[in-house]
Amino acid sequence: KAGVTQTPRYLIKTRGQQVTLSCSPISGHRSVSWYQQTPGQGLQFLFEYFSETQRNKGNFPGRFSGRQFSNSRSEMNVSTLELGDSALYLCASSSGAGGSGNTIYFGEGSWLTVV
Amino acid sequence: DQQVKQNSPSLSVQEGRISILNCDYTNSMFDYFLWYKKYPAEGPTFLISISSIKDKNEDGRFTVFLNKSAKHLSLHIVPSQPGDSAVYFCAARVYSGGGADGLTFGKGTHLIIQP
How confident is the model over B49-91, as pLDDT tens digits? Predict the structure, then answer.
């Protein structure tokens, strides 16, 4: 069974640009969530999607957005990039059904460097 | 305000001995707890979880204990192996009526297994 797949793995962007990251969840999983990891703040929750609807959102500015498609694949977008957006962006999936569906599996992450 | 705390940034244990990683939380609404292992430049790997209705869960060499009254959980690894050297994250979530909140992570504990 394939795991959570994220693309691209590494990318470099310039301040002011925008970036789109992609995530394919584990087959059958309907919940996709995104996290940001930085040395200073650790792992922080961005947002969660379930059946194409955003269910929850972390404490990030509106420049961070996402969406989920009917096949459960998800994208996140960061607009007007700032140097502080340099981070490892992690996608995670779960069945979203509660109980054992609470187990969340992570992808390898997308390393974003803003210069 | 750090809702999930891992107070030991690092822990050194001899191979074959027991490793005990600790985690404290402040939010009494957390009802599901997870432990992840992470290597540099990789996504977190799920290890074991526990629901708030239980006080112990075992999976092979890994056992998680939950003390709700003390708002404390611990991960025991027995016996410790060199491949266990990694950063371990404690995470917790609240399952609200409309869906699960995102995971709240601790800052991590770097476990070093000495030969």
Answer: 999 999 999 999 999 999 999 999 999 999 999 999 999 999 9
Per DSSP, the residues of B42-66 read: S--EEEEEEETT-SEEEETTEEEEE
- Residue among B43, B49, B100 minimizing CB distance to A90: B43
Please confirm whether the linkage preceding A61 is cis (ω < 30° from 0): no
A96/B105 Cβ within 8 A:
no
* B99/A48 touch (CB, cutoff 8 Å), yes or no: yes
Helices (H) and strands (E) in chain B, counts: 0, 13
**Number of Cβ within a 10 Å radius of residue A31:** 24
What distance in Å separates the CA atoms of residue B91 and residue B113, rounded to the nearest whole number?
Answer: 22
Put residue A98 in one of left, alpha, beta given phi > 0 → left and psi -120 to 50 → alpha.
left
Among B residues 38-67, those touching chain A with beta carbons less than 8 Å apart? 41-46, 49, 51
- State how far residue A78 is from chain B, nearest Cα, in angstroms: 19
pLDDT in tens, B101-114: 688 999 999 999 99
A3's tokens = 């795991």
Mutation target vs B (from A24, A35, A102; most B CBs, 10 A cutoff): A102
pLDDT in tens, A42-58: 899 999 998 899 988 89
Helix (H, G, I), strand (E, B), or coil: what is residue A60? coil
Does residue A97 carry a pLDDT above 80? no
